[in-house]
UniProtKB/TrEMBL annotation:
Pfam families to which the protein is assigned, alphabetical: Tubulin
Family to which the UniProt record says this protein belongs: Belongs to the tubulin family.
Domain Tubulin/FtsZ GTPase: 54-272
A Gene Ontology term for the protein's cellular component: microtubule
An annotated GO BP: microtubule-based process
Domain of life: Eukaryota
Name the record gives this protein: Tubulin epsilon chain-like
Species in which this protein is naturally found: Sinocyclocheilus rhinocerous
A GO molecular function held by the record: GTP binding
């Protein structure tokens, strides 16, 4: 079974990544109820024993995420280290600064990129050394901020230089037209040039679309009309059943992106007739190397609780 490494850059990237790990644990806990460290679990998690060494097979000792977390502000990373998911990460997997990038692509790309180049490469190499068969890098970042757009694309270029044979799938969250950050359009344009040059696949996510989806589901939940009652735990924005019990702002929107990544990787993590490698996505859907922006969609967004299914009617036609 192959393994993948998730690289989370910036505030948005780490918040989405936090929801991804929470929902991934929920999914594997539902499928793997025996608590056995199997091949599906090894795709994103390491099984670490009391000595800190990797353990293959058998019971789960302590799970560690195959991830590298990068942010030039301490806020989000500090919350992760103090939150319910803190056991998934060690302090060496987190790379942070204090001042931030000031919503400036050039500061994130050139200033912090050059300053933290060796540290980022070192942590990515350590994560890769724990993989038996490294298949893919997942980069999660935003396009509007300075760290996500600038440092995120710098990390993408590093991955291409250090691991040219490993597939690079990027999930980019694009800002809305009414974004309050005045430099977000410039950051997005500069970051798109780097994505076009160095990514294998890009999954663009429109922030306004996430807002519309959350608003639609919440409106359906509050209407109270017959046939419109939604199961609260069965919506795509729900985090019920995960490790994190208290939802924070933007968690509903981040759950949509996290479900997108889980659904994309499910065919590579679980055995079955539809099992496939992640590099087949680029092989089958990218006609030319630079045309690798793929449009993603999810359905269903929710499950109705009071659907009256009409009885089936059979029509028999006699041929004379």
């Amino acid at each position: 079974m192959t393994q993948s490494i998730v690289v989370q850059v910036g505030q948005c990237g780490n918040q989405v990544g936090c929801r991804f790990w929470d929902l991934a644990l929920r999914e594997h806990a539902h499928v793997n109820q025996m608590g056995v460290y199997d091949e599906a679990l090894s795709s994103f998690f390491r099984n670490v024993d009391q000595r800190g060494a990797d353990s293959t097979g058998g019971k789960i000792n302590a799970l560690k995420a195959r991830a590298v977390l990068v942010d030039m502000e301490e806020g989000v990373l500090g919350e992760i280290l103090q939150g319910p998911l803190r056991s998934l990460f060690s302090s060496t997997q987190l790379i942070s600064d204090v001042s931030g990038s000031g919503n400036n692509w050039a500061v994130g790309h050139h200033t912090y990129g050059l300053a933290y180049r060796e540290q980022i490469v070192d942590q990515v190499r350590k994560a890769a050394e724990h993989c038996d068969c490294l298949q893919c890098f997942f980069l999660i970042h935003s396009m509007g901020g300075g760290t996500g757009s600038g440092l995120g694309t710098f990390v993408l270029k590093l991955l291409e230089d250090e691991f040219p044979e490993v597939c690079r799938i990027v999930t980019s969250v694009y800002p809305t037209a009414e974004d309050d950050v005045i430099t977000s359009p410039y950051n997005s344009v500069l970051a798109m040039k780097e994505l076009t040059e160095h990514a294998d696949c890009v999954l663009p996510v429109d922030n306004q679309s996430l807002v519309d989806i959350v608003g639609k589901i919440q409106h359906m939940s509050n209407t109270g009309k017959p046939g419109c009652t939604i199961k609260k735990d069965c919506t795509i924005i729900s985090g019920q059943g995960g490790v994190v019990k208290v939802e924070k702002p933007f968690d509903a929107m981040n759950n949509i992106v996290a479900n997108l990544l889980l659904n994309i990787t499910s065919s590579a993590r679980f055995e079955g007739s539809l099992n496939m490698d992640l590099n087949e996505i680029a092989m089958n859907l990218v006609p030319f190397p630079r045309l690798h922006y793929l449009l993603s969609s999810l359905t269903p967004l929710y499950t109705l609780a009071d659907v009256n299914i009409p009885p089936r009617r059979f029509v028999i036609i006699y041929l004379q």
